[in-house]
Write a structure and sequence with these properties.
By secondary structure, the protein is an alpha+beta fold. It has 3 domains: 226 residues, 2-Layer Sandwich (Heat Shock Protein 90), CATH 3.30.565.10; 141 residues, Ribosomal Protein S5, domain 2; 128 residues, Four Helix Bundle (Hemerythrin (Met), subunit A) (Up-down Bundle). Helix content is 38%, strand content 19%. Helix 16 packs across helix 18 and helix 19 crosses helix 20. The longest helix is centred in the middle third of the chain and has 24 residues. It is elongated. Bound molecules: adenosine-5'-triphosphate. Keywords: ATP-binding, Chaperone, Cytoplasm, Nucleotide-binding, Stress response. Belongs to the heat shock protein 90 family. This is Chaperone protein HtpG. Molecular chaperone. Has ATPase activity. Homodimer.
């Protein structure tokens, strides 16, 4: 059988996985603002492949490569409208070609399709981990010829991006000795990408400082021109690096197009030596709340890429991107060693502390830059308040809050503005700010000018429970326990309604408790109400009402264990009238019994919940209305 015949029989055509197909259709059929991104993505894949080879050679000496021999070559052929990106990295075998370039959908595929549908720019593709497909923005046909390091056979993958791709054996003599060659037949309107000036412009802007050298060859012209030398930017002195170089490097390690909001570049010397070049993005990655909460820091050992899987930084800093290069770790560090290693621990601690102190500094020195970080990553940083008690104090200097007094308020601001006699830091939890602001429990604080932190992130319910306080002031939920508001003077005098006497309210409370039974743990007068007649609060030592609600959502209604306290506003006309009837006793007090379920139901409704017994509530309310109308 001739070689062509053999390859014919081994040629297989496969459909793209459905999500991938959708993604490709969107890439091909829309007009995109920035197609340059494809080159950065392919170069980035080529660089990753070189680094993977260097890493694999650490445990498999047969794969060892001479230092300095790894390279990326971009070949442009303007006459043929063809662009080739070749690397001599790890390469792909048959199955890897099939899986990686077409049949395995990754979580980013769907996420990217959805964000495109919502109008996102295609240049964000790299962030979703599906960068290869951006080749189809500029090419009508893509060919990938690859030979896995150490393998004899090579494979060719081809596609026009329209539903399917083909894989077949490639002639070993014409395939790369090792690594991958991606050949793009450029579309009519993309021929510019085969010109020297365009390629140089894109590589300089977006791929400078990938840690593998990049050369450009022009068919029928330029023999070979080095575009970048593959030097490790993070090892240079800070003074020798320009902002453009930092930005380009961030684009490479972060797969990002946004501006980094914070760049941290330093070399640590002491018990262990390492270089750090880290970036805090200004925009959220799509998988910020993935349950895995993975770190994306690239760990190098003396310039050799080792892994992206080491959990060097705590999960609450998982949005940080960049490189840490250690002088002291062994090059052949194993997975087990990565899990538990004294040097890595030391590096992790050092870098975490440094990051937190830089964030605290930025919060003071450049408020707009910090606000961007906080808006994108505040809820993630707050996870640290809960998970990392050792770092809590450092994080307290960084956290910012929306409060009843404004946005981006620090705890320091809060404490500086305490009202006379105020000894606690008040907060209100809820599903969103609007609901929180509407809650009756805030009324008393509002009337006294007491600032309240509005906590609407799910993680808030957890950290406030474990944090002891800030600057000696405990945190106190406005919906929990008895509010110590009495001692704080009111900012404005309450409108003078005839408040019920203490004794009458006490009698009313006792009567209501008797009627409502176990549905409430206590009925008592309130200092936290101004306009509303009633509200519910959690008992002193039970979980906050909102936390209970969150847990009930997750674990079912039985998670709501503690019966709430029903608080009465003695200054409210309804309460005053009922208190008078309760004090009168006899026939007059019977009205109190009828009203009790309505009051309790109303308190639930004011929290945004259903009454516990909607039917009973409805009946009692209807009776009251009927009486009122009679
Ligand atoms: N030049 C290459 N050499 C070896 N493997 C490659 C090469 N290009 C792509 N691959 C493989 O194909 C996979 C898919 O590439 P793709 O660009 O879509 O995503 P990614 O590289 O994982 O993420 P990102 O887009 O963020 O770079 C890669 O993870 C890699 O395994």
């Amino acid at each position: 059988m001739s070689e062509t015949a053999a390859s014919e029989t081994k040629r297989e055509t496969r459909p793209f996985e459905a999500e991938v197909s959708r993604l490709l259709a969107m890439m091909v059929h829309s007009v995109y603002s920035n197609r340059d991104v494809f080159l950065r993505e392919l170069v980035s894949n080529a660089a990753d492949a070189c680094e993977k080879l260097r890493q694999k050679a650490l445990s498999d000496p047969a794969l060892a490569v001479e230092s300095g021999s790894l390279a990326i070559t971009i070949t442009a052929d303007p006459a043929a409208r063809r662009l080739t990106i070749a690397d001599n990295g790890i390469g792909m075998d048959h199955d890897e070609l099939v899986d990686n370039l077409g049949t395995i959908a990754r979580s980013g595929t769907r996420a990217f399709v959805e964000s495109l549908e919502e109008g996102a720019d295609s240049n964000l593709i790299g962030r979703f981990g599906v960068g290869f497909y951006s080749a189809f923005m500029v090419a009508g046909r893509v060919e990938v010829v690859s030979r896995k390091a150490g393998a004899a056979e090579a494979w060719r993958w081809t596609s026009d991006g329209k539903g399917s791709f083909a894989v077949e054996p490639a002639d070993p003599a014409a395939a790369p000795e090792r690594g991958t060659r991606v050949v793009l037949d450029l579309l009519d309107d993309a021929e510019d990408y085969a010109t020297e000036a365009t390629i140089e412009r894109i590589v300089t802007a977006h791929s400078a400082h990938v840690p593998v050298p990049i050369a450009l060859v022009l068919e029928g012209g330029l023999a070979e021109k080095t575009l970048t030398d593959g030097g490790a930017l993070w090892r240079k002195a800070k003074s020798a690096v320009t902002p453009e170089e930092y930005r380009a490097f961030y684009g490479h390690v972060g797969h990002a197009f946004d501006e980094p909001a914070l760049t941290l570049h330093y070399r640590a010397e002491g018990r262990t030596e390492y270089s750090v070049l880290l970036f805090v993005p200004s925009e959220k990655p799509f998988d910020l709340f993935d349950p895995e909460r993975r770190n994306r820091i690239k760990l190098y050992v003396r310039r050799v890429f080792v892994t992206e899987d080491a959990a060097i930084l705590p999960p609450f800093l998982r949005f940080v991107r960049g490189v840490i290069d250690s002088e002291d770790l062994p090059l052949n560090i194993s997975r087990e060693m990565l899990q538990k290693n004294a040097v890595l621990d030391l590096i992790g601690k050092g870098v975490t502390n440094r990051l937190l102190s830089e964030l605290a500094k930025l919060a003071e020195s450049d408020k707009p830059a910090f606000e961007k970080i906080w808006t994108a990553f505040g809820p993630v940083l707050k996870e640290g308040l809960y998970e990392d008690p050792e770092r809590r104090d450092a994080l307290f200097e960084i956290v910012r809050f929306r409060t009843t007094k404004g946005t981006m308020r620090s705890l320091k601001d809060y404490v500086a503005d305490l009202r006379p006699n105020q000894t606690e830091i008040y907060y209100a939890l809820g599903a969103d700010e609007k609901t929180i602001l509407a809650s009756p429990q805030l009324e008393g604080c509002r009337a006294r000018g007491v600032e309240v932190l509005l906590l609407a992130d799910p993680v808030d319910a957890f950290w406030v429970r474990t944090a002891l306080g800030y600057d000696g002031k405990p945190f106190r939920s406005v919906t929990q326990g008895s509010a110590a508001l009495d001692a704080i003077p009111r900012a404005e005098e309450a409108a003078s309604t005839e408040a019920a006497s203490d004794a009458a309210v006490a009698t009313l409370g006792a009567r209501l408790k008797q009627v409502l039974g176990d549905a409430v743990s206590e009925v008592r007068p309130s200092t936290r109400l101004v306009d509303s007649p009633v509200c519910l609060v959690a008992p002193e030592f039970g979980p906050d009402r909102h936390l209970e609600r969150l847990l009930a959502g997750r674990e079912g209604p039985e998670a709501r264990k503690a019966a709430p306290v029903l608080e009465l506003n003695p200054g409210h006309p309804i309460v005053a009238a009922l208190a008078a009837r309760a004090a009168q006793g006899g026939e007059a007090a019977a009205k109190v019994d009828e009203t009790a379920p309505v009051l309790l139901g109303l308190a639930h409704v004011l929290e945004g919940d259903l009454p516990q017994d909607p039917a009973g509530f409805g009946k009692a309310l209807s009776r009251l209305i009927a009486d009122a109308l009679a």
